[in-house]
Write a structure and sequence with these properties.
alpha+beta; Arc Repressor Mutant, subunit A; 4 helices; 3 strands; about 55% helix
């Protein structure tokens, strides 16, 4: 989900998102449903709803910030002997 949020920061089409996140369309749909429900991303559409795009919300950016902070704390480096 972090890859999707990072990629959608500033806006991205569904096709480009599929490529960047390296997901199938079914997997991406499941993740986007969750992210949309939690209001971490918003869906953008043209007037005819023919072209859809997604953008990370402010809440999504806060989520990413916390995620990367926790990830950096949890990294354990192996000691070199």
């Amino acid at each position: 989900m972090a890859v999707i949020l990072e990629s959608a920061n500033g806006g991205i089409t569904k096709t480009k998102l599929l490529t960047r996140a390296n997901l199938t369309s079914g997997q991406l749909k499941q993740y986007l449903d969750i992210l949309l429900t939690k209001k971490l991303v918003v869906q953008l559409a043209d007037e005819q709803r023919r072209h859809l795009a997604y953008r990370t919300t402010e809440k999504g950016i806060r989520y990413l910030s916390i995620y990367f902070t926790l990830k950096s704390i949890a990294i354990f480096r192996q000691k070199e002997y």
